[in-house]
Fold this protein.
Amino acid sequence: MFCLRCQPYFRIFNPVSQSEKFDAEGMFIRKCLPVLAKLSKAALHSPWLASPMERAAAGLMLGSNDPMPVVEHAEARALTLQHYAILKSS
């Protein structure tokens, strides 16, 4: 059973850094999201940060055929840690 009071820390993984670390070539992304396949390795893991020219060359249009990120990871992580701290203190 998970106990907030027993956990010495909270681990919140960053999906972009995990993707870069464990699939640097982007094989999974290219297979499962072929619309992103034409992006460079650097842009593949976070296409919303690619230059407009690189996105255009790959045929991507943010908000159209390539969705914007659902959350800003750093902000979501900070908010989640705040919520965990409240639960842990109660």
Remarks:
- The domain at 15-89 is CATH 1.10.579.10 (DNA Cyclobutane Dipyrimidine Photolyase, subunit A; domain 3).
- Helices lie at 15-22, 27-32, 41-44, 52-57, 73-89.
- The chain has a mean pLDDT of 86.
